[in-house]
Structures are given as structure tokens and as C-alpha cells.
Amino acid sequence: MYKPASKTTFIGKNIYYLTSCHSTNDIAAGKVRSGLGENGDVIIADEQTAGRGMQGNTWEAEPGSNFMFSIILKPENLSASAQFGLSQCIALGVRRYVHSAVGAGAAVKWPNDVMVGNRKIAGILIENTLRGAFVTNAVVGIGLNINQTQFSSPRVTSLALETGVCYSLEKELEQLLLHVEECYGYLALPPEELDRLYTGEMLGVGEVRTFVSGGEYFSGIITGVTPRGRLKVITGDGEKEFEVKEIAWVW
């Protein structure tokens, strides 16, 4: 169904298509462990029976209507302490693809969801392999709603719902991979420049938002992220930093 990407430099030159699998991330990780995974390989499926997101969340997707795929990446000289930079790059690539389709309203919801307004359209799960102090391999899982129009939650959307268009998945995959590859190159930027780009495309930066942490609700203003990926929020008690599991948005 999917042809090798013709416009990218290396991502998607090898595309492995499956009608159904348990998890494209697991299959990609298996290829890496066996030494068969090449830099830029894409494993894509119409259906995942055990697809997952961050913190063990599941990904609801209608078979054959959306993107569920994984990319194998082999970063050069990416230290373990700077691995959040990879998450920033991929999130920017997905967000920019969505923006190219829907226009205003697409933003990165920390740490690596993509939203249109207040509705989720994409999620990213990155699983890194470390050797010593460096990331040697990364499996980048991306779930992106394209043509599905019915969801169990009102807080989820798709390109079709936003634009009224029915998309060719094959054509759109190439465009998405182009954006991801371009932004993956941002790993070569100084960290402060990557932070500036990421913060500029984050949801809620500079706005008063409601959060919950440790069972307590509070209002705060997002100012950005730390080099290790903690969320920085100005609260009534000053600026605080939060890990992913320590804070949740309240809508």
C-alpha cells in the first residue's frame, strides 16, 4: 500500500506495511535488537491490537483510517541527558504537518501530544536504547488521526473532522515524513535554540491554565521546559518544575 518515500533523505526509504499487528513500536524494537533495523525504517500498520501511548495509555483508532507507525532512528552523539531534544524535534515535525493541513490552532501539548484547539489529534511515544551515556537507537511511535470521524471522546479530532476532506494516506505519509525529517535535523541546533522553537509552538505558553498535581488544583502560566523536559509553570508560589507524571491539565 505504501511506496518508499521519494522526497525524504532517509526516513521512509524502507517502509514495512502490515494490515494488523500488536504494536509497531514492539516490531521496530525487535528489528533493532536483531540488528536488522536501519536508520529511517518505517513500520506502519492499518491496525494495532496493543498500541500504547505514554504512561500506558491506549490509542483509539479505526483500522485503515489513520496513521499508526514507528520510525527507527539512530541519533549521532545524542547524550542521555539531552534525549528530550529528540522528543521536541519529533513533536515539532508532527505539529507542523498538522498545521499545514488545518492552519491555525495546531500546537504541541507538553510533552509530545499534538492538539488542534483543545482536542487531541496525535500522540507520540519514543522508546530509546542507551549505551553508556548516549542514545544509540530510538523507536519513534506516532499515532495521528486522519480520516476517522467518530470517537468515544469529544476531546479527540482528526484531519477529516477539521477540514471536511478525505485524505489519501499514502500521499499524506510522505508529507508527514518530510516534516518529521526536517525537524529531526534540529537536534544539531544549540539546545537553547531548540527550546525556543519548541516553546513557540507549545499549547498554553503565557496563558493562565488550570492544572492538578498531587490531588490539588491550581492555576498557573506555562513558561517553557527545562533541558531534561520538565514543564515550567508559574504558580502562586513562584515558578515550579514538573515531571510528566506529576501534573495534569484540567479542561
Instruction: Give start-end ranges of low-pLDDT stretches.
Output: none
Give the total of domains: 2
Helix and strand element order: EHEEEHEEEEHHHEEEEE
Instruction: Note the overall shape.
Output: globular
Q: Measure the end-to-end span.
A: 39 Å
CATH superfamily of the largest domain: Bira Bifunctional Protein, Domain 2
Briefly, what CATH class of the largest domain?
Alpha Beta
Oligomer: single chain
> Helix/strand-derived class?
alpha+beta
Proportion of β residues? 25-35%
Number of strands: 13
CATH architecture grouping of the largest domain: 2-Layer Sandwich
- What is the radius of gyration computed over CA atoms, rounded to a whole number of angstroms? 18 Å
- The helical percent reads 10-25%
- Count, helices: 5
Briefly note the CATH topology name of the largest domain: BirA Bifunctional Protein, domain 2
Major sheet summary line: 8 strands, mixed
Average pLDDT figure: 95
